[in-house]
Amino acid sequence: NSVSAGCDLTALFPRFINFRRGGYIAATIGLTMCPWNITKNSNEFTSYLSAYTVFQSSVAGVMVTEYYVIRKGRYNVKDMYSAKKGSWYWYTHGINFRAYTAYVVGILINVVGSAGATGRTVPLAAMRIYDLSFFTGFGVSAL
Fold first, then answer.
1. What is the average pLDDT score of the chain?
2. pTM of the model
3. Bridge partners of 95?
């Protein structure tokens, strides 16, 4: 993961960060997050994975809808790397506000149940929706 982060940080700040320095920054941030605490017991690890699913299911819903429904299984590689106004992926000034809205709505349907998974009192319906968080987040963001 430090290779990817090193490349990303180099692309963001090429004047200040080279590939090696970006990798060191990523490794430092990764160690300060104490990832070994997540795997101390199976309950904490599954709670972490469930919370992660809330966000990733919405991304998957948006991407699958974009590729299969909107683009009908086609993509234009040349336009993926173009910032011109007439390209396939231009949308509104280069930002697809509908995709961001679908992503946020897909997360919001699961947020209340996610709070319930941490021990807070939430309605039973919210917990039932959260139990199916991948399917609900994917489905809502796909709509």
1. 85
2. 0.70
3. 92
